[in-house]
Automatic annotation (TrEMBL):
Pathway it works in: Amino-acid degradation; L-alanine degradation via transaminase pathway; pyruvate from L-alanine: step 1/1; Photosynthesis; C4 acid pathway
Superkingdom of origin: Eukaryota
EC assignment: 2.6.1.2
Similarity remark: Belongs to the class-I pyridoxal-phosphate-dependent aminotransferase family. Alanine aminotransferase subfamily.
Required co-factors: pyridoxal 5'-phosphate
InterPro entries: ALAT1/2-like, Aminotransferase_I/II_large, PyrdxlP-dep_Trfase, PyrdxlP-dep_Trfase_major, PyrdxlP-dep_Trfase_small
Coiled-coil segments: none
An example molecular function term from Gene Ontology annotations: L-alanine:2-oxoglutarate aminotransferase activity
Protein name stated in the entry: alanine transaminase
C-alpha cells in the first residue's frame, strides 16, 4: 500500500509509510551513538508523535477484553485511555513513592499473578522512563531487573523514553532499554521491545510539529509484517515531523559549525528547567501538608498533599474528589493550573497534584508566592485534622 514515492519529493509529498529512509538512517545513527550498539533503520517507524506509535502497538497487542497491559500508577493517561479504547484490560502496578517512585519487581509479580487469577492474559509491560508525572529516572539495576522480568514472563516491553533528554541531576544518567538489553548479552531477537521517542520534549519541545518514532526489536517476521500493515493503513507521517525527529536524534556534533550555538542554547534551556524544578520542589516541601520527591527528570512534579478532614468533607459535599476540589479552588483563587493526581492514578486514599515546570523562569517566584498565599489561606479555612490514609 505504501511502497511508492511521489513524483515531486517536496515536504508536501507522500513517502514510505515507515518514514523517509534517509531520515531513518539518521535516527539509527543517533541511536547507535547514544547506546554504543548498532541500530537498524528498518526497525524504525517514524510517527506523528509518540502517541500514534503507542496506539499502533495497542491495536496490534489487544485482541479482546481479556488481553492485559501492565501500566505504572501514576502514569500518563495515554495508556489508561488507549488500552480500553482498543478493548483491552489495564493491569496497574504501583510505583513506590516512599522510595522516590521506584518500580518494584515484587509489585509487578503481584499484579501479574492477580491478573492471571482473573483469566487476563497479560501481554506487555509499559515503563515510562523518565517518569511522567513522577519525574524519576530508573537506575540501571532496576532496568536490568525489568528486562529479566519481561524475559522470564514472556512479556513485550514497551519503553516510553520520550523524556530521555530531560535529566536534572548530575549523578543520574538516562540509559535506553535497548542499551540495557544489549549490555545483558541479549541479541536483537531475544526480547520483544518497542521504544518510543518524541520531538515534543527535551530542550526543543516542538509539540505542534508532532514528530517521533518507535523502534521495534525482537519480533518475528510475521509480527513485523502486521506492524508494517498497520503503518501502511496510517499512510506516511507528516514530513516536517519526520525531519524534526531525525534532528532530535542527530543534533550538531563537536566540530560542526553550529555546535557551539546549539550546545549553548540546549544547556541554557535544560539548566533553566532544572532551576525551575528545584524552586518548585522546595516550595512544595515548605508548605504545610505537602511532601514532594526530588525531580530527577521529565517536566513535572507530583507532590502529595495531606488534606484536612474538613477539606475532604467539603469536597464530598461538592461531589468532587479531594484533589479535584483543591486544584479548582487554586485555579479560581490564583489562575494557577495544576492537574489533580486522580487524573493519573494514585494509591487509594492519597491525593496528589501534577505541576509542570514549564512556566517561564522569571514567572516562577511570582507563581510560588501566589501558591503559598493560597495554600496558607486554604489550610486556615479547613484546618482541623490532617488525614493521610496511606
Amino acid at each position: 500500500m505504501c511502497d511508492y514515492h511521489c513524483r515531486f519529493l517536496g515536504p508536501g509529498s507522500a513517502y514510505h509509510c515507515q518514514g523517509i529512509k534517509g531520515l531513518r538512517d539518521a535516527i539509527a545513527s543517533g541511536i547507535a551513538s547514544r547506546d554504543g550498539f548498532p541500530a537498524n533503520a528498518d526497525d524504525i517507524f517514524l510517527t506523528g508523535g509518540a502517541s500514534l506509535g503507542v496506539h499502533m502497538i495497542m491495536q496490534l497487542l489487544i485482541r479482546n477484553e481479556k488481553d492485559g497491559i501492565l501500566c505504572p500508577v501514576p502514569q500518563y493517561p495515554l495508556y489508561s485511555a488507549s488500552i480500553p479504547l482498543h478493548g483491552g484490560a489495564l493491569v496497574p502496578y504501583y510505583l513506590d513513592e516512599s522510595r522516590g517512585w521506584a518500580l518494584e519487581i515484587s509489585d509487578l509479580k503481584k499484579q501479574l499473578e492477580d491478573a492471571c487469577s482473573k483469566c487476563i492474559d497479560v501481554r506487555a509491560l509499559v515503563v515510562i522512563n523518565p517518569g511522567n508525572p513522577t519525574g524519576q529516572v530508573l537506575s540501571e539495576d532496576n532496568q536490568y531487573d525489568i528486562v529479566k522480568f519481561c524475559k522470564t514472563e514472556g512479556l513485550i516491553l514497551l519503553a516510553d523514553e520520550v523524556y530521555q533528554d530531560n535529566i536534572f541531576v548530575d549523578n543520574i544518567k538516562f540509559h535506553s532499554f535497548k542499551k540495557i538489553t544489549r549490555f545483558m548479552g541479549h541479541g536483537e531477537d531475544d526480547l520483544p521491545l518497542v521504544s518510543f521517542q518524541s520531538a515534543s520534549k527535551g530542550s526543543y519541545g516542538e509539540c505542534g510539529k508532532r514528530g517521533g518514532y518507535m523502534k521495534i526489536t525482537g519480533f518475528s517476521a510475521p509480527v513485523r509484517e502486521q506492524i508494517y500493515k498497520i503503518a501502511s493503513v496510517n499512510l506516511c507521517p507528516n514530513i516536517s515531523g519526520q525531519i524534526l525527529a531525525s534532528l532530535v536524534m542527530n543534533p550538531p556534533k563537536p566540530g560542526d559549525e553550529s555546535y557551539a550555538s546549539y550546545k549553548a542554547e540546549k544547556d541554557g534551556i535544560l539548566q533553566s528547567l532544572a532551576r525551575r524544578a528545584k524552586a518548585l520542589e522546595d516550595a512544595f516541601n515548605s508548605l504545610e501538608g505537602f511532601t514532594c520527591n526530588k525531580a530527577e527528570g521529565a517536566m513535572y512534579l507530583f507532590p502529595k498533599i495531606h488534606l484536612p478532614l474538613k477539606a475532604i468533607e467539603a469536597a464530598k459535599a461538592a461531589k468532587k474528589a479531594p484533589d479535584v476540589f483543591y486544584v479548582l479552588r487554586l485555579l479560581e483563587s490564583t489562575g494557577i493550573v495544576v492537574v489533580p493526581g486522580s487524573g493519573f492514578g494514585q494509591v487509594p486514599g492519597t491525593w496528589h497534584i501534577r505541576c509542570s515546570i514549564l512556566p517561564p523562569e522569571d514567572k516562577i517566584p511570582t507563581l510560588i508566592c501566589h501558591l503559598k498565599a493560597f495554600h496558607e489561606a486554604f489550610m486556615a479555612e479547613y484546618r482541623d485534622q490532617i488525614v493521610d490514609m496511606v
